[in-house]
């Protein structure tokens, strides 16, 4: 039987799928969509993966990947039980590996086992390899010396803070807010919570007071861990005063622990509520026993980045999540003993949770925490870090790479980047040109590129190449990770599209350990968003093409599709055509209402630093789109803007641009997750020719 999309009310408008709580128009299966994918070049396993004779990749061939993947989806309980015994440490061993399913939203893993995430990430390495560096902390300024924290020292710091939290009366199950800059202290704070079974809710320190307030209230945090100030591109950010403003309307937060990041004497402390971190921890002994947690006890909750609407507070569990983070760090980045791993996201995002903190530390790896930005003081900060620490894995985002590519190749070429074996990308579809730049200029054609597709909800990678085994194609997240059984569905009928050369919406057919278990405090929203749209499947909300080789290509959100006179145009494809042009740095394409065609294409672009806006550029870009996709994709207008509206994690918020081109600027919606709200007015003015 074919799964039919249903809503709570049972209605289903034709040609639409449920995204969140609203129906949106989505693409039908259109074979021409696979064309670009089928024309893409293919790259063999990168030379650096096999360069050292004594270091064989964990998965070293396509056959080995196929065999492992097949077993992981055919016998998930068996496969993941083995992995969970190997990669985690259990206080009480589990006997039930898997229970529940997607249909009922009750999938759960290793149910009767107990463990502690802080023990797994810290203690066991502090006992085995105490002097190994756990964390390298690089501050916002390159002249400030970096800090190295060994596993032995990390255990002390985590225990002392856990002692302080315990002394505040916090017990297993209580929620703690963390609003800290991206420093080693943030990692310590997360692990101290995990040690006591406190559910941490990290809020990215760039968020406003209102955004922080809403998140603290949503999970009823009793304590907030924050800092006096943050540093971003050399500027002080008054984190404590933003927190104070949030706390005025979040009275359930009774205690505030303040890390002295800058020590600015003007920062106000409320003596009845606030205490400095150093003061709070100094009376506690540097050992504190870890609290045994049930496998399915919450480890943390975290909000999605808010690209499409009101952020969802997802809840992740102790064992399933930690296994996903550790397993993917090991296999996707091919981590080996002696590696130095860097994920330059912020701990405020799921990428930071899984690949700065839990994944690398669970494996006992050295992880780098970078507080700064890639382009300040010079657009070479990443490359400097790689050379300085001889980093072996480097994980970043398309948005950062596009920002760096604007400055050309010279800043990269100044550095020796030969230590890097794996370069990762996450957050948005990476356009083939940016992929090629990463491959050719940063990786010199020798490092592996892993374009990892996943979500806050998935906890860990779900589509990704394994660098020692899978041939790559620029722009494709390639193949499913262990435990993930992807399906491409016809958005209208919910019918599964079998075989290759098909396009539709991406869904997953069975549960995997690291998937989020619920939306905090609103399980019905969880079912409504992920499970009910296509019963029996987990619905991602992203469009996807499977090409003739069976490789998967994410085509952006299902609502990021333009219907031009019946032609379904992929926003991601038009944007790739634009950024392929030498003048264009970034592009965001949306559909505007059009009397004749239904929808027409409008493109907003930023230029590389080497080019100034001229009246010819839009014509050149138009030609580039026509040549690469065809006249049907011709943008009706191309508007050169100084910047695109982006979330604080750097994702383009196309929904705002859609409102602008539809003349609905009075209902722009929730802007609290936008990194620079002032660009919105500039874009409105440029669009209306007022500038
Ligand atoms: P919200 O759900 O609130 O709208 P969000 O989806 O941006 O926010 P995240 O969970 O941080 O929040 O992002 C996951 C989404 O990011 C994916 O659903 C997908 O659209 C996009 N994405 C992430 N990695 C990739 C990738 N490698 N290729 C293509 N798209 C990606
Ligand atoms: Mg999302």
Can you offer a commentary on this structure?
The chain contains 20 helices and 32 strands. The chain has 691 residues and is α/β, with parallel strands linked by helices. The protein has an eight-stranded mixed β-sheet, sandwiched between helices. α4 packs parallel to α11. It is globular and about 70 Å long. The protein binds adenosine-5'-triphosphate (ATP) and magnesium ion. Adenosine-5'-triphosphate binds next to β26 and β27. InterPro entries: Ac_CoA_lig (IPR011904), ACAS_N (IPR032387), AMP-bd_C (IPR025110), AMP-bd_C_sf (IPR045851), AMP-binding_CS (IPR020845), AMP-dep_synth/lig_dom (IPR000873), ANL_N_sf (IPR042099). This is Acetyl-coenzyme A synthetase.
Brief characterization of the structure:
30% of the residues lie in helices and 21% in strands. With 691 residues, it is an alpha/beta fold.
Sheet with most strands: strand arrangement: 14-13-10-8-9-16-17-25
Alpha carbon gap, first and last residue: 56 Å
Mean pLDDT: 92
Please bin the fraction of helical residues. Answer: 25-40%
Tally of helical runs: 20
Structural class: alpha/beta
């Amino acid at each position: 039987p074919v799964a039919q999309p249903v809503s709570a009310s049972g209605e289903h408008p034709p040609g639409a799928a449920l995204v969140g709580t609203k129906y949106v128009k989505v693409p039908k299966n259109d074979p021409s969509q696979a064309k670009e994918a089928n024309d893409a070049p293919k790259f063999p396993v990168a030379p650096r993966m096999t360069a050292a004779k004594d270091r064989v990749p964990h998965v070293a061939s396509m056959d080995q990947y196929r065999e492992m993947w097949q077993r992981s989806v055919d016998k998930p309980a068996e496969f993941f039980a083995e992995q969970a015994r190997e990669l985690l440490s259990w206080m009480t061993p589990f006997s039930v590996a898997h229970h529940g399913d997607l249909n009922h939203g009750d999938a759960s893993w290793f149910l009767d086992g107990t463990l502690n995430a802080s023990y797994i990430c810290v203690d066991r390495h502090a006992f085995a390899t105490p002097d190994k560096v756990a964390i390298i902390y690089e501050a916002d300024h390159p002249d400030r010396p970096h800090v190295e924290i060994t596993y032995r020292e990390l255990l002390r710091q985590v225990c002392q803070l856990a002692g302080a939290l315990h002394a505040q009366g916090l017990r297993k199950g209580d929620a703690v807010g963390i609003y800290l800059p991206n420093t080693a202290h943030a990692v310590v704070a997360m692990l101290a919570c995990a040690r006591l079974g406190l559910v941490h809710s990290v809020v990215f320190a760039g968020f406003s007071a209102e955004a922080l307030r809403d998140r603290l209230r949503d999970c009823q945090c009793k304590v907030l861990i924050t800092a006096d100030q943050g540093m971003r591109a050399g500027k002080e950010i008054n984190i404590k005063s933003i927190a104070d403003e949030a706390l005025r309307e979040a009275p359930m937060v009774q205690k505030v622990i303040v890390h002295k990041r800058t020590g600015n004497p003007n920062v106000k402390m409320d003596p009845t509520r606030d205490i400095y971190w150093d003061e709070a921890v100094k009376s506690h002994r540097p050992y504190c026993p870890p609290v045994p947690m049930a496998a399915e006890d919450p480890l943390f909750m975290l909000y999605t980045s808010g690209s499409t609407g009101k952020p969802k507070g997802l809840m992740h569990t102790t064992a399933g999540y930690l296994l996903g983070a550790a397993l993917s760090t090991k296999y996707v980045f091919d981590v080996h003993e002696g590696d130095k791993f860097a994920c330059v996201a912020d701990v405020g995002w799921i990428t930071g949770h899984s690949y700065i903190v839990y994944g690398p530390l669970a494996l006992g790896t050295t992880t780098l925490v970078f507080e700064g930005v890639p382009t300040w003081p010079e657009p070479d900060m990443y490359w400097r870090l790689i050379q300085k620490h001889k980093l072996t894995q480097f994980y970043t985002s398309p948005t950062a790479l596009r920002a760096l590519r604007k400055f050309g190749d010279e800043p990269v070429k100044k550095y020796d980047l030969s230590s890097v074996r794996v370069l990762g990308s996450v957050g948005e579809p990476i356009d083939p040109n940016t992929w090629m730049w990463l491959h050719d200029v940063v990786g010199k054609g020798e490092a592996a590129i892993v374009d990892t597709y996943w979500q806050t909800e998935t906890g860990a990678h779900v589509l990704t190449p394994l660098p020692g085994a899978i041939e790559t194609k620029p722009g494709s997240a390639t193949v499913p990770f262990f435990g993930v059984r992807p399906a491409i569905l016809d958005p209208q009928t919910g019918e599964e599209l079998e075989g290759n050369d098909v396009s539709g919406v991406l869904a997953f057919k069975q549960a995997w350990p690291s998937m989020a278990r619920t939306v905090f405090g609103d399980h019905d929203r969880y079912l409504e968003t992920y499970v009910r749209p296509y019963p029996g499947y987990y619905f991602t909300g992203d469009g996807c093409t499977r090409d003739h080789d069976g490789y998967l290509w994410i085509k952006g959100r299902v609502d990021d599709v333009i219907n031009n006179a019946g032609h379904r145009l992929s926003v991601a494809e038009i944007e790739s055509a634009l950024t392929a042009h030498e003048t264009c740095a970034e592009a965001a394409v949306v559909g505007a209402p059009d009397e004749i065609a239904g929808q027409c294409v409008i493109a907003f672009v930023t230029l590389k630093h080497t080019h100034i806006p001229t009246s010819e550029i839009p014509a050149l870009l138009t030609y580039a789109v026509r040549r690469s996709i065809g006249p049907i994709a011709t943008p009706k207008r191309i508007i050169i803007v100084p910047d695109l509206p982006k979330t604080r994690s750097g994702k383009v918020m196309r929904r705002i641009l859609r409102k602008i081109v539809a003349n609905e600027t009075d209902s722009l919606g929730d802007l609290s997750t936008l990194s620079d709200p002032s660009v919105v007015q500039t874009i409105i003015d440029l669009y209306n020719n007022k500038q």
